[in-house]
Amino acid sequence: MSNILAIAGRELRSYFASPIAYAVIGLFALVFGFMFYAYTQMFVRQSQQFAAMGGPLSVNQNVIRPLFVQISIIVLFVLPMITMRTYAEEKRSGTIELLLTSPLTDLQIILGKFLGAMGLYASMLLITLLPISLLFWYGDPDWRPVVTAYLGLLLVGGAFISIGLAISSLTKNQIVAGVFTFCALLMLLLVSWLQDSMGPVGRAILSAVTIFEHFDDFSKGVLDTTHLVYYASVITFGLFLTAKAVDSERWRG
Amino acid sequence: MIEVQHLTKRYGRFTAVDDVSFRVEKGEILGFLGPNGAGKTTTMRILTGYMPATSGRAIVAGFDLFTQPIDAKKRIGYLPETPPLYPEMTVREFLLFCARIKGVPKKAQRAQVDTSMEKARVADVAGRHCGKLSKGYRQRVGLAQAILHNPEVLILDEPTAGLDPKQIMETRDLITSLAGDHTIILSTHILPEVSQTCQRVVIINRGKVVAIDTPENLTGQLVGTQNLYVQVDATGDAGAALRGVPGVLSVTLADQRQTIAGFEVQSQEGLDVRRDLARAVVSQGWGLLELRPLRMSLEEIFLQLTTEERAAAAAAENADRSDARASADADSPDGDEAARADEEEARHV
After folding, report:
1. What residues make up the domain containing A62?
2. Which of A215, A243, B151, B218 allows an S-S link to B77, with CB 3.0 to 4.6 Å?
3. Which of B51, B78, B80 sits opposite A253 (nearest CB)?
4. Number of domains, chain A
5. CA-based nearest distance B149→chain A, Å
6. What ipTM goes with this model?
7. Do residues B163 and B171 touch, judged by C-beta distance below 8 A?
8. Among candidates B117, B185, B193, B192, which has minimal Cα distance to B157?
9. Which residue from B85, B89, B102 is facing A102, i.e. has the nearest CB?
10. Domains in chain B, start-ordered, CATH in brackets?
11. Chain segment A79-121, per-residue pLDDT in tens
């Protein structure tokens, strides 16, 4: 465990020592801030119209939920930038030799890198707490869907990171790792477009595969074990692929 | 302390290391010598557990690297060809991180980082970022990292590459001073380095061991015939005068510049003719400019062995013979016999 934390700590430190962490967090904060502003503006306009008709509008339904769905999509764009260097950079600079010849297991290295990336991702999500808390300051939304939505975001991000880690472990080139990760994650989003043209079985399979389908319930405030198991499986699978890639690299030399 | 048995590593069809066997005793410094691409780095990477061998066994400090990698790695310090530094960390931060992942107990971490920085002489750059260090410092921080957890075995891949002459000397001194407590394997393609620091040398070429012996034996401190180089500033026939010394078998003119002539003198076995030679020259009133034993330099041995190997690979019957020699070397613990045979051969070619 101490080994895992040592590696996670080093990863996190290296993110914050390079411009990557600041670029990623800054970019994310900018886009999120814009979206937050747009959604609250829209909400204010709509609630004025609805107030004339009588019914009050729910902040949860009209601001928080769509906002979190949007965040999960921004995350898709941002996370490849975090994961692309994890293995690729160590292989290019030769520091992987230090890790692989130290008394560490592959699993400790992989989990350390995973936790390090998760740490940066979590601090990125931390930024969003400020605008969200404004909603609580001025309004009275239900806090439970917010909590499940954050949990959902962590799981979506975890799944993305484990996929990114696996792809990064296959190449020496950061850019290649980044582009491939981005494409892979984008495909996970786009595959849902085919749903309408599929039969009932195909549709069921696609909705099971699509990574964002599973996020929807979290943003509604629903905690379903199906989705928890789904994300846990994707994360485990990604880390397993990473372990296999690292091992096969070792044999091929 | 280190035992390598029939190690073979193949990349696809290419055989990088071919049936390499050797032993290193506790406290010894073993030099690993070979041209670029001979399989030095691959062997070292197998010994450090970076990659597994295709076949064969490597045992370090009693632990098999394939079956008990963690236990073995705890006892190995490794300096790869390029020092593995994280550019964004300061030297101290980097070494503390290394101490953690190498399993140094928490309480001892700071003290051990300080000692290793002192030993490797990097204490003055403790606060500098690794990415901003000069090549010499990077190499030494890499060395500090290798000795950090006080490992029983040190494996150093070209520890003096990229250093200036003064740093090379300092690094050599450091390595020699470490030898007592640590068992060291170092690779190099700089030949004088081997004769100065190593107690034994493994010469490897095209993945095969071509010789294992002490540098002295390899450089040919022959007990048999003695070869001397004599340089004389003579007005008469110096060659005849030298030939007249009892015990001298042959005298050949090696070089001549005006009155200054250099001779290669071969003398009888077990007879030290240096005093007589000097007397013979001086008594004529000539100047004796130089008188030194002639040894085959490690460079010559090295070239001989590695090119011989190449020639041998071409001819089938030769290949068999050199194989037999390589394995004879590997099996006999001193390998003196075989190396001497090499010597003889080298001289007659």
Report:
1. 2-252
2. B151
3. B51
4. 1
5. 11
6. 0.87
7. yes
8. B185
9. B102
10. 2-218 (3.40.50.300), 226-293 (3.30.70.3190)
11. 999 999 888 989 899 899 999 999 999 999 999 999 999 999 9
